[in-house]
Predict the 3D structure of the following.
Amino acid sequence: MPLLYDDLVCRDAVELASDYLEGALSWRRRRSYERHLRGCPHCRAHLAQVRSIVTELGRAEPGQLTDDARADLMDVSRRYREERSGDAEP
């Protein structure tokens, strides 16, 4: 049974983290997300991780990433898009 806080389950909250940081949520969705965060330490930790990753990647200069690191990031991005679209392989 998923953890419920108001109208968001943790899975939904995880998917909203990037949009929240970018200020792309509607006021109603943002309010619901923040309410969820107040009651869920796991999602607060996830948001802190996403914020840290975005901050660190934003500081990266061209050429700082190794070819392997770049390939890993591209792979994670591809899998994320596939999962969101429902095309992920088992």
The chain has one domain: 4-85. Helices lie at 10-22, 27-39, 41-58, 67-85. Residues 67-85 form the longest helix (19 residues). Confidence is low (pLDDT under 50) at residues 1-6.
